[in-house]
Design brief:
The complex is a heterodimer of chains A (111) and B (362).
Chain A: E1 2-8, E2 11-20, H1 25-37, E3 42-53, H2 55-70, E4 74-78, H3 82-90, E5 99-100, H4 103-109
Parallel strand pairs in A: 2-3, 3-4, 4-5
Antiparallel strand pairs in A: 1-2
Helix pairs in contact in A: 1-2
Chain B: E1 2-11, E2 14-24, E3 29-33, H1 40-47, E4 55-60, E5 63-64, H2 72-78, E6 79-82, H3 94-105, H4 110-123, H5 139-152, E7 157-161, H6 169-184, E8 188-192, H7 196-202, E9 205-210, E10 213-218, H8 220-225, H9 230-240, E11 241-246, H10 253-266, H11 271-288, E12 297-304, E13 309-316, H12 333-341, E14 342-350, E15 353-360
Parallel strand pairs in B: 3-8, 3-9, 6-7, 7-8
Antiparallel strand pairs in B: 1-2, 1-4, 4-5, 9-10, 11-12, 12-13, 13-15, 14-15
Helix pairs in contact in B: 3-4, 3-5, 4-5, 5-6, 10-11, 11-12
The chains are: A alpha/beta (111), B alpha/beta (362).
């Protein structure tokens, strides 16, 4: 998995690519913790380049939501599609997270 | 039609074939299976005299083809061969590849040869490629041209030497479907193949070769469902299933994934099915992980094209308990995914092991 971050206004966009699985989820959780601990409270996660997600990745997202809630922050997921979308559907995650079809829409949703 | 008696072949001191005796009757489809390096291709090449047998006899319709007076070119016309690497003439068009033999060796007119070639290209679904050159075609298309070229010589029997082994999985089906069609039309064929479901479907008889001889032979049902000899059983089990033992929580997920992907590729499973299988295995390993070490997990994946069933079996040591009903699971996420990916889940306690059997959705 590759993880890149960039600042867009008062939000952080986290771009993921490759696999978010049992091997890479700890790295994702560590990065998210660091972002939130350093004061970021609005996070957009862009799934456009992510090919695969397992329950380990979903737990990482739940952790992100929990940490943000504790600080009154918000998150929105963008471009959740294909195999990744199927896994979200299996676990009912589409109703748990705010989701938009593009990063721009996701940024607007948490502005 | 072809009678082979005590056929042997040595390369120096290396004995590749030992006293092979069998018959191939008119209209029969015989597949030859077995581990690599056990003489399958050498056997075919001896039949076609591309290799000179060291001993024994081969007769076709009563004619001894090892007799020095026998016209080898004529034998090869009767018994044509399709190779794994296509062997098309790259400087000739598809049409020219098909008409060269009939014009030069059978003496038929160019017009007649072209009409026949076009008919054969239609049979293999490539009439529109008649003017193309081999390097303009995919591997699967080149092999279908090679089969059409072989048919252009009107052989009485076709020998296929691993016709799909040089092809990508997506192209294998198109070649196998052409061979299946020939089988339905009654063509006599001897096929060396690693495609086990194909061998099971298309053959009248299966020869399992090992140690340079026909170790066991029988109907597809006898060889694939009820092999009698130990080596045949071991080979069939190995080729039709994937098994991995995991005994440490520090298992290498990506190495396991690579092995499963290789298995799926061999079975020509669609990409979505592969992804689902990889996800299912990861979720199961996550559930088993806290217990690995003290307990050992054996994962077996089996696929049957005939029944279109993809199954995964987890057998684990330890106390009797259904691992996916354990109250110690951190959450239900993994289970939700597992249930969504499977049609049925059966738990049994067998021979002192916990056995979970999953029928995977396709």
């Amino acid at each position: 998995m590759d993880l890149h971050t960039r600042t867009e206004g008062n939000a952080i966009v986290v771009t993921l690519s490759g696999r978010l699985d049992a091997v890479t989820a700890p790295e994702f959780e560590k990065s998210i913790r660091e972002l939130i601990d350093s004061g970021n409270s609005r996070i957009v996660v862009d799934f456009d380049q992510l090919d695969y997600i397992s329950s380990a990745g979903l737990r990482g997202l739940l952790l992100m939501a929990k940490l943000l809630n504790a600080k009154g922050g918000q998150s929105c997921l963008a471009n959740v599609k294909g195999n990744v979308r199927s896994v979200f559907d299996m676990c009912g995650f589409c109703s748990v997270f705010k989701m938009e079809n593009s990063v721009a829409e996701a940024l607007a949703a948490i502005a | 039609m072809i009678k082979i008696e005590y056929l042997s072949k040595k390369f120096g001191d290396l004995v590749v074939l030992k006293d092979i005796s069998t018959e191939i009757k008119t209209g029969e489809v015989v597949t030859i299976i077995g581990p690599s390096g056990t003489g399958k291709s050498t056997f075919l090449r001896c039949l076609n005299l591309l290799e000179t047998p060291s001993g024994g006899s081969i007769t076709i319709n009563g004619v001894d083809i090892l007799d020095k007076k026998t016209d080898v070119a004529q034998i090869r016309q009767k018994m044509n061969m399709v190779f794994q690497s296509f062997n098309l003439f790259s400087h000739l068009s598809v049409m020219e590849n098909l008409t060269l033999g009939p014009i030069k060796l059978q003496g038929i007119s160019e017009q007649e040869a072209q009409a026949k070639a076009l008919e054969l290209l239609r049979l293999v679904g490539l009439a529109e490629k008649a003017g193309n050159y081999p390097d303009e075609l995919s591997g699967g298309q080149q092999q279908r041209v090679a089969i059409a070229r072989c048919l252009a010589m009107e052989p009485e029997i076709i020998l296929f030497d691993e016709p799909t082994s040089a092809l990508d999985p997506t192209m294998i089906r198109e070649v196998l479907s052409v061979i299946r069609r020939l089988a339905k039309e009654g063509m006599t064929m001897a096929i060396v193949t690693h495609e086990m479901d194909f061998a099971r479907d298309v053959s009248n008889r299966v020869l399992y070769m090992d140690e340079g001889l026909i170790y066991e032979e029988g109907t597809p049902e006898q060889i694939f469902e009820h092999p009698q000899k130990e080596k045949t059983r071991a080979f069939i089990n190995r080729i039709l299933s994937y098994t991995r033992r995991i005994s440490s929580p520090d298992y290498d997920l990506y190495a396991i994934n690579a092995e499963i992907e290789a298995f799926c590729e061999k079975q020509i499973l669609p990409k979505k099915t592969r992804n689902n299988l990889l996800l299912l295995v990861e979720e199961l390993l996550q559930i088993y992980a806290p217990y690995l070490g003290p307990i050992v997990l054996d994962i077996t994946i089996t696929y049957s094209e005939k029944n279109d069933r993809l199954e995964l079996i987890c057998e684990s040591t330890g106390e009797q308990a259904n691992p996916i009903e354990s109250a110690s699971l951190a959450d239900e996420l993994g289970l939700m995914i597992i249930r969504n990916l499977t049609e049925s889940i059966d738990y049994q306690w067998i021979n002192g092991k916990n056995r979970l059997q999953f029928l995977i959705k396709k």
